[in-house]
Amino acid sequence: MTTVAAYAAPAAKAPLERTTIERRAVREHDVLIDIKFAGICHSDIHQVREGWGEAIFPMVPGHEIAGVVSEVGPGVTRFKVGDRVGVGCMVDSCRECEMCLAGKEQYCLQGQTPTYNGVGRDGEPTYGGYSEKVVVDENFVVRIPDGLSLDVAAPLLCAGITLYSPLKRFGAGPGRKVAIVGMGGLGHMGVKLAHAMGAEVTVLSQSLRKKDDGLRLGADHYHATSDPKTFEELRGSFDLIVSTVSAPLDFGAYLSLLKPEGTLANVGAPEEPVSLNLFSLIGGGRSLAGSMIGGIPETQETLDFCAEHGIGAEIELIAASEINEAYERVENSDVRYRFVIDTATI
To answer: How far is CA 234 from the centre of its chain?
Structure first.
């Protein structure tokens, strides 16, 4: 066991504070990672505040982890000391079900083990990346290509893969019109990725205040959803819409923006249920889909794609002492576009 410094929420809705946690000794196939940077995801805030249901405390959030390997177990074959690596939203799965065998561990039929706010198959609670070190099985570690700086790579472990997966699955590419709903930590990655895939990209945001950023990052068009004319003008325009927002939407209105047989893929996770008139789907043969992160192979594919195309997250680097302030700013949409903790400050 190794004692490391971390930032944890001692109870639901409590401010995060500096503490220490125990990391397990390195096992046969484990990798010990010195964490260099950890992204702050809106998911962290939902879970610290129990917005998605009962949680485990104390909680050390963080599932956008970038660091360097400092020790490997005797059976490790994929990594060596000094390798630049990342850890995303999960650290284990059953590895036997059809989803795991297909490289889609996020949909493990027995339930994947989340990087934090979970219980490992050894019965111990999992603690995330707001800490100095983490021990992870090599099969749930990915390699960060040399072309990516660790700080801008960290958010790719959640925000990046969360957008890459549905864009790839539903055919974003040349000749396709793609809309990204929301221009935040997830949405800005969607703009960059869809543009790099060759799609014609539109941002649908509440206001136009981030329009210049959207166009700079690769959007071809930018519209305010607070303007009712937007839904009239864009009716039937898109092959694919990816919604990144964590507030309930008027799904009927957004589905009306799709071409017949188009898809609205949802990666945002509102805390409240949403309602839907099914005629919004039936009328145009449209699809409403969900997508959750990606498997380990696809996460590696995302990092490789981003390195090839020079894509990193737009970040604001903060000290660990600023985490609670950062949470408030995320809630107020006051970040462009992802907070990343410099873990040397923990």
So the answer is: 28
**Mean pLDDT in residue range 19-41:** 98
Quote the pLDDT of residue 247: 84
Beta bridge partners of residue 17, listed in sequence order: 8
Burial class (CB in 10 A: 0-12, 13-18, 19+), 113: buried
DSSP state of 334: -
Identify which of 284, 220, 226 has the alpha carbon closest to the alpha carbon of residue 255.
284
Say which amino acid occupies 115. Answer: T
Q: Which of 181, 225, 176, 235 is nearest to 203 (CA)?
A: 181
Render pLDDT for 189-217 as a digit per residue (tens, 0 to 9).
Answer: 999 999 999 999 999 999 999 999 999 99
Whether the full predicted model's pTM is greater than 0.85, yes or no, is: yes
Tokens of 5: 């410094």
* DSSP notation for 19-50: EEEEEPPP-TTEEEEEEEEEE--HHHHHHHTT
The pLDDT > 90 percentage for the chain reads 95
Residue 217 sits at the vertex; the CA angle it makes with 213 and 223, to the nearest 5 degrees, is: 60
